[in-house]
C-alpha cells in the first residue's frame, strides 16, 4: 500500500462491534480492523453489546448507550492510524448499521456538529447532541402494544406488510418512536432529528468545523428505511391493487406518522408533519454522495479532503451488496437461525417475510427488491438432531444424511420446530410422518433414528425452496409453481456452510449451484476464500461504485459493476476464469443427477404436511 492509488472504506456498526474494511478500486480487501464493545470499551458495562436492564425498564427492553457508538468511532480511527492505514488515500466511505435501531439527535446537534475542535475526541464533544442517551437494539421486544396499534391503523398485519414491506415488529423503528414519544414526550420534543444507526454513522463522518447546520445531519437510506414500519413502499409498480396509484411515491406513510407522533393525543408535539421533518429526506440513490468527509476527520486523521461519503444502509442490505445478487439469486445464511435473502424485480409483500428496496439501485432503472426470510430453527435444530440421533457427531450425521436421503420410493418427512417458528408462523414441536399405503400417518419415531438427519435438512431446504418460489412467482400468482426451480444460484454462508453434506443437500433440493465468493490469493497463486466481514465489505463496494460513477465513467447497475470489476481483478492477478470460478464466485457444489426430481415430486405433499403439522400439537 505504498503507491497513491485510491482506497475505499466500509464500516459496520453491529450489535457487538464496529468493524472497518479497507479496499482498493479492484475490490480487493486489503485489511480489516474492529472495536469489540464489551472487550474494548468495558466502562459502558455492556454484555453482548447491550446494557443490563434496569428496574425501571419495561419488560423486553434491550438498549445500548449512544455514546458507546461514538467512542467506538474514536477508537477505530486511532486504530486505523496506528495500523498505518493510508487514510489520505481513502476517496470514499460508506457504512452499514444494525437495522431498526434509532438514534435521536437533540436541537443542539447541528451547532455541535459544525463547531468541533480537532484537538478533542468526538466523545469529549458530542454528548449533548443526543436527546435520548440510549439506542434501542434489534433484540428489544418492549413495544407489543405499539405494534398492535400499527397494524390496527391500516387494517391488520397483512395490510401493514403490503404498505411497509413487513408486518409490525417490536424491534422496528416506528413502534420504538411511538414508545419514546409516549414515555418521554419532553425528550421527543427536544429531538431535532431521528436517524438509524446507519445514518448516524454517515452523519458522524461529516462533522467538523464550519459545516452547514441545515444539512450536517444526514437522511435515511431507502433500503434501510424499509425496516421501520413507516415507509410506504406501495408505489412499486408491480404491486397489484384495485386502487389507483395516482401520484403516490415511496415516502413516509402519513397515517403511520400520525400514529407514531401521537397527533390525535397531543397536538403540541407537532403530529405527522413534525415527525416527517424529524425523519428528514430519504436517500433514493445510494450511489450519490451526501457530501465530503468532515474537517474533524481531515485535520485530525489526515483523510483526503475530497473523500466522498455515501449513504449508509442496514446490515442486511449491506450483506446483500457484498454478494451483488442478481434476480433469482439468493443468500442462505446457516447460523443459529437461518436467513434467506432472495433478489427479485417484483415487490412481494407478505406478513411472514420482509421486503426491501434494493440497496444500490439506479433511480433510472426498473424496480429492484429483495425479500428476507428468517427462521428460528436453523443450526439449533440441526445440532439437536445430531446430538439426539447421531451420537453428537457430525461425521455420523453426514453419513446418515447420505444413507437415508429420500429416493423415489421413500415416503417420510419430519418437522423440527424446537422454538415457535416464524415461517410458518407459530409452528412448534417435532412432527414426523410416514406413508406406507394411501395415507400419511403421524409417527413418534422413524424406523431408523438416522432418518432424522436427512429429514431435518430436507424439510428445511424444501421450506426455503417453496417460499423462494412464491417470491419469484410474484404477488399476482395465487398458486406456487412447485415444478419450476426458483433460483439460479445460492450463496451459502454461516457456520454450517462449511459442511459439504449440508450444502450438497441444499444443491439437490433447489436444483442449482451453491457458490461462495473468492478473491485472488495473497501469494498470487489461485483463489482464496473471501473470509472477510461481509457487512463492511458490502458498504465499501457501494462506496467504490458511487465514486466510480462520480468520475464520469460508464454508469452501470451495481451488480454489473461488481461482476465486471471482479473479472478485471482476476485478469490483473493473472488468474483465468471459467469452470468453477467466474466473477469472483466459486461453485462449491452442483445438484446431483436425478436428485432434484425426487424433491420436486414430493414438495406438494410436503407442503400439505407442513400445514397439518402447524395445526397439530
UniProtKB/TrEMBL annotation:
**What Gene Ontology cellular component terms go with this record?**
cytosol
> Which biological process annotations from GO are given for this protein?
D-xylose metabolic process; xylulose metabolic process
Q: What class of enzyme is it?
A: transferase
| Lineage per the UniProt record | Eukaryota, Fungi, Dikarya, Basidiomycota, Ustilaginomycotina
| Residue ranges constituting the Carbohydrate kinase FGGY C-terminal domain according to the UniProt record | 331-517
Entry EC number(s):
2.7.1.17
Chemical reaction(s) catalysed: D-xylulose + ATP = D-xylulose 5-phosphate + ADP + H(+)
Key words of the record: ATP-binding, Carbohydrate metabolism, Kinase, Nucleotide-binding, Transferase, Xylose metabolism
This chain's source organism reads Kalmanozyma brasiliensis (strain GHG001)
The protein's name is Xylulose kinase
Molecular function (GO) terms listed?
ATP binding; D-xylulokinase activity
Q: Which Pfam families match?
A: FGGY_C
Q: Does the keyword Nucleotide-binding apply?
A: yes
Query: What family is reported?
Result: Belongs to the FGGY kinase family.
Q: Give the top-rank taxon of the lineage listed in the UniProt record for this protein.
A: Eukaryota
Amino acid at each position: 500500500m505504498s503507491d497513491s492509488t485510491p482506497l475505499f472504506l466500509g464500516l459496520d456498526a453491529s450489535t457487538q462491534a464496529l468493524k472497518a474494511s479497507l479496499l482498493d478500486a479492484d475490490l480487493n480487501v486489503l485489511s480489516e480492523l474492529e472495536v469489540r464493545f464489551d472487550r474494548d470499551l468495558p466502562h459502558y458495562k455492556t454484555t453482548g453489546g447491550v446494557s443490563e436492564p434496569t428496574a425501571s425498564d419495561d419488560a423486553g427492553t434491550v438498549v445500548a448507550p449512544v455514546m458507546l457508538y461514538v467512542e467506538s468511532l474514536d477508537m477505530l480511527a486511532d486504530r486505523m492510524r496506528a495500523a498505518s492505514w493510508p487514510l489520505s488515500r481513502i476517496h470514499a466511505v460508506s457504512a452499514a448499521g444494525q437495522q431498526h435501531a434509532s438514534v435521536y439527535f437533540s436541537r443542539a446537534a447541528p451547532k455541535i456538529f459544525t463547531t468541533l475542535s480537532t484537538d478533542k475526541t468526538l466523545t469529549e464533544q458530542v454528548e449533548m447532541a443526543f436527546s435520548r442517551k440510549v439506542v434501542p437494539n434489534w433484540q428489544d421486544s418492549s413495544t407489543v402494544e405499539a405494534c398492535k396499534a400499527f397494524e390496527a391503523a391500516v387494517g391488520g398485519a397483512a395490510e401493514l406488510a403490503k404498505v411497509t414491506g413487513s408486518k409490525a415488529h417490536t424491534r422496528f423503528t416506528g413502534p420504538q418512536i411511538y414508545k419514546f414519544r409516549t414515555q418521554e414526550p419532553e425528550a421527543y420534543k427536544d429531538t431535532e432529528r431521528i436517524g438509524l444507526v446507519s445514518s448516524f454513522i454517515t452523519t458522524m463522518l461529516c462533522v467538523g468545523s464550519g459545516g452547514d447546520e441545515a444539512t450536517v445531519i444526514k437522511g435515511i437510506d431507502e433500503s434501510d428505511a424499509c425496516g421501520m414500519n413507516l415507509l410506504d413502499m406501495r408505489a412499486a409498480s408491480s404491486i397489484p391493487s384495485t386502487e389507483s396509484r395516482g401520484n403516490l411515491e415511496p415516502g413516509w406513510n402519513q397515517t403511520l406518522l400520525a400514529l407514531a407522533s401521537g397527533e390525535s393525543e397531543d397536538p403540541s408535539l407537532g403530529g405527522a408533519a413534525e415527525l416527517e421533518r424529524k425523519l428528514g429526506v430519504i436517500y433514493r440513490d445510494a450511489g450519490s454522495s451526501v457530501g465530503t468527509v468532515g474537517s474533524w476527520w481531515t485535520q485530525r486523521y489526515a483523510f483526503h479532503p475530497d473523500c466522498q461519503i455515501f449513504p449508509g444502509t442496514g446490515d442486511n442490505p449491506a450483506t446483500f451488496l457484498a454478494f451483488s445478487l442478481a434476480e433469482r439469486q439468493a443468500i442462505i445464511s446457516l447460523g443459529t437461525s437461518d436467513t434467506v435473502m432472495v433478489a427479485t424485480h417484483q415487490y412481494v409483500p407478505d406478513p411472514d417475510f420482509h421486503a426491501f428496496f434494493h440497496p444500490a439501485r439506479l433511480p433510472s432503472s426498473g424496480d429492484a427488491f429483495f425479500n428476507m426470510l428468517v427462521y428460528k430453527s436453523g443450526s439449533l435444530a440441526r445440532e439437536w438432531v445430531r446430538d439426539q440421533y447421531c451420537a453428537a457427531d457430525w461425521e455420523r450425521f453426514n453419513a446418515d444424511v447420505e444413507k437415508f436421503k429420500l429416493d423415489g420410493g421413500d415416503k417420510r418427512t419430519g418437522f423440527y420446530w424446537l422454538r415457535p417458528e416464524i415461517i410458518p408462523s407459530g409452528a412448534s414441536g417435532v412432527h414426523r410422518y410416514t406413508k406406507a399405503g394411501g395415507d400419511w400417518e403421524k409417527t413418534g419415531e422413524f424406523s431408523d433414528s438416522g432418518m432424522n438427519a436427512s429429514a431435518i435438512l430436507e424439510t428445511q431446504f424444501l421450506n426455503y425452496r417453496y417460499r423462494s418460489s412464491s417470491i419469484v412467482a410474484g404477488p399476482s400468482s395465487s398458486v406456487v409453481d412447485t415444478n419450476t426451480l426458483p433460483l439460479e444460484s445460492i450463496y451459502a454462508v454461516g457456520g454450517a456452510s462449511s459442511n459439504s453434506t449440508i450444502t450438497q443437500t441444499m444443491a439437490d433440493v433447489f436444483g442449482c449451484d451453491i457458490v461462495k465468493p473468492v478473491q485472488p490469493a495473497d501469494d498470487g497463486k489461485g483463489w482464496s476464500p473471501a473470509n472477510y466481514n461481509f457487512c463492511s465489505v458490502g458498504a465499501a463496494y457501494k462506496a467504490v461504485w458511487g465514486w466510480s460513477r462520480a468520475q464520469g465513467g460508464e454508469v452501470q447497475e451495481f451488480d454489473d459493476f461488481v461482476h465486471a470489476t471482479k473479472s478485471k481483478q482476476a485478469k490483473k492477478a493473472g488468474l483465468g476464469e471459467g469452470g468453477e470460478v467466474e466473477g469472483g464466485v466459486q461453485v462449491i457444489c452442483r445438484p446431483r443427477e436425478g436428485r432434484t426430481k425426487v424433491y420436486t415430486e414430493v414438495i406438494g405433499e410436503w407442503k400439505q404436511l407442513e400445514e397439518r403439522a402447524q395445526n397439530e400439537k
